[in-house]
Amino acid sequence: MNEQLAPIEPATGIPTESKVFYALGTFAVVIDIIYVLASIPGGIEWSGTVSLAATAVFSLFFGYFLQRSIRRVQADVEDVEARVESGELAEDAPEALYLPETSIWPLGIGVGAGLTFAGLGFGWWFALPGVAILVHSAIGFAHQSRERGRD
Amino acid sequence: MTLLDERSAGETPPAEPPPHRRQPTGILRWATSSDHKVVGAAYMVTSIGFYLIGGLMGEAMRAQLAVPDNKLIDNGAYNQLFTLHGTIMLLFFLGSFAFGVANFIIPLQIGARDMAFQRLNQVSYWLYLSGGLVVLSGAFTENGAANFGWFAYTPLSDGIRSPGVGGDLWIAGVSLVGVSGILSAVNFITTMITMRAKGMTMFRLPIFCWNMLIVSVLILLTFPVLTAAGVMLYADRQFGGHIFDATVINGVSGVPVLWQQLFWFFGHPEVYILILPYFGIVTEVISAFSRKPVFAYKGFVFATITIGALSVAVWAHHMYATGVVLLPFFSALTMLIAVPTGVKFFNWCGTMIGGRLSFTASMHFAIGFLLCFVIGGVTGVMLASPSLDLQLTDTYFVVAHFHYVLFGGGVFALFAGIYYWYPKFTGKKLHEGWGKLQFWLQFVGFNMTFFVQHLLGMQGMPRRTASYTAADGDLFRYLNLVSSIGALILGASTLPFLWNVYRTWRRGEVVGRNPWDAGTLEWWAPSPPPIGNFDRALPPIRSERPVWDAEHPGHEALAEQRHGTGRADGVVGASASKGGGS
Ligand code: HEM
Ligand SMILES: [Cu+2]
What's the CATH number where B294 sits? Predict the structure, then answer.
């Protein structure tokens, strides 16, 4: 079966991932211009104009960012994955891609953030313990990351 | 907790896992595991819980409206009910369930072992759950929960007209869920663009993945606007801000309608954030049960991108009646969305035509989706026309329209997805008979409840009213009664589903890797997939149906697909040389 399959060739040109963002960004630019022109007679409506401009800037920037970096990142990921598969790298080595580990800190962050935000309604006696739990969990989370070397 | 139980994996039980792969069981697993499948299942179970709560609220409102001059629920409680019902259904159920499916399925479909940021994924889940609980906790405060409707218009939602803690908790909880959504979106995007297996180019990604990619982008573009608006509203309520306040102070004033602009700049894309994942699910289901690749795959992808782009430019079609928006601009762009949406209907029908269809429970729901969503689409185009909308806005016509889209589109597709992927989630198949019973109850109940509401709306029944009087006439009376009886049937359709889940947990049919003979990569893994997902090398990926290609060598679809999407000349994306299992 394999011989009927076309071989995999290295990718060239602008990555598809970037093109998606370029398309969205270009569309937002065009639409923003039309929106401004159409609203000039009645006075420019700023919230929509600015939101569309922000959409355009974000999309174009992200498209460019991907274009610059995505191939390199993908190659790195592939390289690590290949080393794990060949047994050169242990699956739980810190630089390995994949390590499902258990962690209590995300739950702590959720509880902490929940209490903190509930404090916006109920007052500081909710927010105070909330912030304490949140900070403690965030520190725990960061420590766990450092021990593992990534995430 | 059935979904979360540890199970033996498919045909080849793996050897005793190495220490770092051992996982706690039961509640502890749910609380601490960063496995994408556990997080995904937690999302799904939690959002079904919210669905049941929100559904009961809907039933309560329909009970109140069943007969004229009913005294079951007073006005204040009714206001809280529709606010919580709308908020729960949109933000804590439909969108979150899609995140659950995505968490579970995306890594499998792209041939990855997990998400890119595993613990961040857990953080998203916990923020989502706590945000939902914060909003609900408002119901236990003195003035009750938020009661200004799910879009919280100012000046109604300001500190004077909606005093009390409930409104603040609504802002706080919705913001938390917003943050959770942003984290998930970052995670989905990173996973899909960096962790695809060797040969899985962008144009071989399953449609569900493509749709989640566009959804994630829309989230990043619009959720920050909602959060910003929420902060401003909170400042107005708590710190005497005047951003949305029309009171003139020293010759200047705030602008109440600014809230609407900002809210809908989030809110309209949000409805696509809600529906696009379900388009993706239905596409997978129809393709699998037609035994065919998706018809005009690239057309489908471009239609999704077009919908995503257009959706950021139509927000003010919710604001025609304010009289301060550019009617021709928004009306034209809104109607344009019908074009890519129509393209998708051609894709779905084209996929089914000439296929070997099997009418499983899942396929029933997918076809139910097609029928109901098309009605919601048509009424949507009607409402896009300002001359009609000015008559129909804030009537039951609108209530009917968005339930056809969200329930007829979203929830039907959701159940199509549940019946389709349940074997992958748990290793057991849901019972087909109970599934079909659920479908028919749901289909009949749904149409009975909401179709008549079009007529009620055209008769002038306003939305968000807790009651009507006998003087409104017999038509009002009968149509409302039909709607409420329909709602009862609709609610009853949940029972066969819950029973089905329970019964399958006790004695469901155990199935192998690929019970439906489907084609995407998740069906290559054992059911349910072990930690790390794949226990054998991936098949070569040269089309968007690698498993089908591997299991049906020489099938003519292979040549057809290679031509359509499997070209190896480098046009198809970055990862043509990526590492994977093959
Ligand atoms: C169990 C089935 C359901 C029933 C019986 C039901 C019933 C209702 C009722 C009676 C209202 C209030 C109408 C009014 O007074 O204006 C309403 C509003 C609403 N429903 Fe549903 N509904 C159901 C399911 C859903 C689902 C699945 C969704 C979305 C995923 C949904 C989204 C909404 C929204 C967004 C509102 C508007 C809330 C507002 O006005 O702020 N509903 N529904
Ligand atoms: Cu809209």
Answer: 1.20.210.10
Q: What is chain B's Cα-based Rg?
A: 24
Q: Is residue B482 part of a domain?
A: yes
Interface contact A9-B194, CB threshold 8 A: no
Q: What is the pLDDT of residue B556?
A: 55
Residue B1: inside a domain, yes or no? no
Say yes or no: B32 contacts chain A, CB-CB below 8 A.
Answer: yes
In a domain, B2, yes or no: no
Interval B394-412 mean pLDDT? 97
Confidence of residue B246 (pLDDT cuts 50, 70, 90): confident
- Which residue shows structure tokens 């992200």? A62
Secondary structure (H, E, C), B63-104: HHHCCCCCCCCCHHHHHHHHHHHHHHHHHHHHHHHHHHHHHH
Distance of CA A136 to the CA centre of its chain: 24
The pair of structure tokens assigned to A31 is: 């639409």
Residues with CB under 5 A from ligand 2 (ion): B 268
Residues B35-45 as b/e (b if ≥16 CB within 10 A, e otherwise) read bbbbbbbbbbb
State both tokens at B528: 């349910």
Question: Does B414 fall in a domain?
Answer: yes
Q: Where do we find the tokens 């923003």?
A: A32
Q: How many CA atoms lie within 13 A of B554 on its CB side?
A: 0
Q: Which of B134, B194, B542 has its CB closest to that of A6? A: B542
Tell me the pTM. Answer: 0.91
Facing residues of B249 across strands? Answer: B252
Q: Which residues in chain B are contacts of A138 at CB distance < 8 A? A: none
Most B CBs within 10 A among A74, A85, A89, A124, hence the mutation to make, goes to: A74
As a whole number of Å, the end-to-end CA separation of chain A is 39
Contact yes or no for A52/A31 (Cβ under 8 A): yes
Residue A143 burial (10 A CB sphere; 0-12, 13-18, 19+):
exposed
